[in-house]
C-alpha cells in the first residue's frame, strides 16, 4: 500500500506563486510517472503536469511557461512550482503516481487526497 500526501495549497493573489509537494510513502520499490491533476468546480479533472522516471516532463498547454514539475527520487516526492497564478488556476490539485512495489510485477496507480489552491484578490 502507498500513501500520497499533498501539501502547500492555499490562498494566493493573482500573479503570485505557490509550491505544492507530494510525498509518497509505503511499499515503494520505484516510481514511474508522478503527475499533477486538478479539478475546478463544475469541471472535469484535467491533466496539469507529469514527471517521468527518466527526468522528462510533460506540461499542459494551459500552464506551460508558468508551472514546473520536478521530483526528488531519494525522497519519493514530487513538486509543482506554480508561478504567475491566475484565477482560472483555482482548483483542487491531486497528486498521482504509478508505483512498483517490492512484491509485485506491475505498477499500481495511486492518488492523493487533494489540496485546495485558490487564486483570488
Order of helices and strands: EEEEEEEEEEE
The rounded Rg comes to 14 Å
Please state the oligomeric state of the protein chains shown. single chain
State the separation between the terminal residues, measured CA to CA.
40 Å
Task: Describe this structure as you would to a colleague.
The protein is an all-beta fold and 121 residues long. The protein has strands at 2-7, 10-12, 18-26, 30-39, 46-51, 57-59, 67-72, 77-82, 91-100, 107-111, 115-119. Strands 2, 4, 5, 6, 9, 10 and 11 form a seven-stranded mixed sheet that branches. It has a four-stranded antiparallel sheet with strand order 1-3-8-7, with no helix packed on it. Strand 7 and strand 8 form a beta hairpin. The model has no long low-confidence stretch (mean pLDDT 96).
Which SSEs are present, and which pair or pack?
Elements: E1 2-7, E2 10-12, E3 18-26, E4 30-39, E5 46-51, E6 57-59, E7 67-72, E8 77-82, E9 91-100, E10 107-111, E11 115-119
Parallel strand pairs: 2-11
Antiparallel strand pairs: 1-3, 3-8, 4-5, 4-9, 5-6, 7-8, 9-10, 9-11
